[in-house]
What we know:
Elements: H1 2-41, H2 43-67, H3 74-89, H4 96-112, H5 120-146, H6 150-175, E1 179-181, E2 185-189, H7 190-210, H8 215-243, H9 258-262, H10 265-280
Antiparallel strand pairs: 1-2
Helix pairs in contact: 1-2, 2-3, 2-5, 3-4, 3-5, 4-5, 5-6, 5-10, 6-7, 6-8, 6-10, 7-8, 8-10
Amino acid sequence: MNTIEETSSSVLSGQGSQHLLGQRILSACILLPPVGAAVYLGGPWLAAVVGAATLVAGHEFYSLLRRGSYAPSTSLGLLLIALLLLGAYRPEWGLIRPAVTGVLILTLSWQLFRVDSPRPMVDWALTVSGGLYLGWLMGHFLLLRAAPRGLHWVIVALLSTWICDSGAYFVGLSFGRHKLWLRISPKKTWEGAVGGGISGVVLTALLTGLLGLGWPHGALIGALVGIVAPFGDFAVSMLKRQVGAKDSSHLIPGHGGMLDRIDSLLFTVPVVYYYAHFVVGL
């Protein structure tokens, strides 16, 4: 009897995995063309796509916090995100320092009037940290695209991240046995992490060779991305587990919310930007 139950459970699990994979592929086919076009065109087109995606992710972030009985200011957090992205898009305007200064003063002052908030300093800290987390890190996407050969570097950042994520997903699905970080993300395995890292090194090296950026740089970037990408994923998983959520939202079938979709990129794009800036010398 137990064998029959286990077999049935295994079959249902396999069917569920296939259905999820189908949803992931369909969502990717729908999202990739507009994202690819925005990356290619750059300028205001990319700024608009990055801005929209980050603000949606920001709304999901603050909604998750509210689900956990916190009370951040969503509107002020989204304002900080928008200002940081605008500062990255137009660095010559010098918006970053006055924007951060103004929002720090405004958000802290706002808490003084919220007499119904039992933890005003916690809510203030979460409002500001959420804006910095999303707005500051995603701003590197715009900085990278504006750099010399920025289109190639953005392609490397995106594809290396997706290669590592996909490699980890498929290897973990097929061979995963040993849990990587059960407390944070119970489905991730060491086999998946190693598979993602190896695929990232090999395929990113090939990609940078084809783009004329040099395969040694690609191998190093692939290794760095393979290390930091899981931590970007784990950071959002930590938040979701703390508030009892499976996904940040149900916006993208097979992927969850926008925050679930960009969590790894929040860590990998800045790493690629600073590697290109300090090692390659953009």
